[in-house]
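May I ask you to review the protein record following this short note?
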Amino acid sequence: EKIIDSITYAQGIQQSILAEEKEIQNVLPDSFIYYQPKDIVSGDFYWISSVNEKIIIAAVDCTGHGVPGAFMSMIGNSLLNQIVNEKKITTPADILTQLHEDIYTSLHQKNKRGQSQDGMDIALCTIDNNTREIEFAGAKNPIYIMKNNMVEVCKGDMHSIGGSEILKKEKAAGRKFTNHKFPIENGMSIYLFTDGYVDQFGGEERKKIGSERFKDLLLANRLLDMQQQKNVIKETFEQWKGNNSQMDDVLVFGVRL
């Protein structure tokens, strides 16, 4: 009971660093956050900031879930605040490159004494309403773009932020991320998410929801406002999961531009 009470108290601390959905809607009026931790505290977190008239948003999936994931989420949130709010870096690829180097350094992953080889996958984009452009970069995670009655997928790079694989394949300074640009079109929607939703087992055959089924769900409900879409996404997840246990933390961040 003491351990559960302690973790539940920690949940309040973790949630205090996350913007409330109403705060996000002050900046992005037609948006939603579907956030469902697996074990009280979460290794997933969402992040938003406004710098130089640009809005930067991210969906982040840290190694693990529960307490270890929550520790990593607090580190990731703090580093994003430093990189974007203090250093004023707003280009997504540059943000991810700096985040990777900071995780690598702060967890001493280049040293034998570094006990943690953890990291995070992330989808991050900058929305510039002045230039009417979106910039995106991802570490393993993609962005889904809904326009012209189609879902376009822009994949992230195939390496994570931090983690043990850098010890085998490359130096920390060698990791770069790709920057993608898209014009903002009227009525266009974007979706950032972690893998917890698409990887959930369930249904009659106990299969994963999967990315194709998720894209079909978004496409079928594209005309609904974002809060209605959130309700559909949530209800579909719960129905699919059924009596199965939740596999991972779940996070979906949707915005209509």
Notes: Helices lie at 2-16, 21-27, 66-86, 92-106, 165-169, 211-220, 226-241. The radius of gyration is 18 Å. DSSP finds seven helices and 13 strands in the chain.
